[in-house]
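name: query_chain
kind: protein
chains: 1
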Amino acid sequence: MRDRFSRRVRESGEAGFTLIELLIVIVILGILAGIVVFAVGNSREDAVTAACNANKKTVSTAAEAYKAKNGSYPTSLTTTGFLKDTSGLTGTYSSTTGTYTC
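structure:
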């Protein structure tokens, strides 16, 4: 049975991939992987910027709501109850102007 299989492979001339063909495929896959890594790295910075902008809007809305209710900007938005979760806030809040900066 083994003789039949080896004879059929020799007759068709297809014994498998050569080392050079395998190396070319590996190089192409490496280049594609490098492109993907750099593309994902840039999107992380964009995500951090978008999160910061969302935090700015949240703090601004809470500060304006506090000012509308009490007549002045709050010294701390967490103690007044206008912001429930501040775990995502990484910037600073100015109580004199009611602004948030990243």
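note: Residues 19-70 form the longest helix (52 residues).
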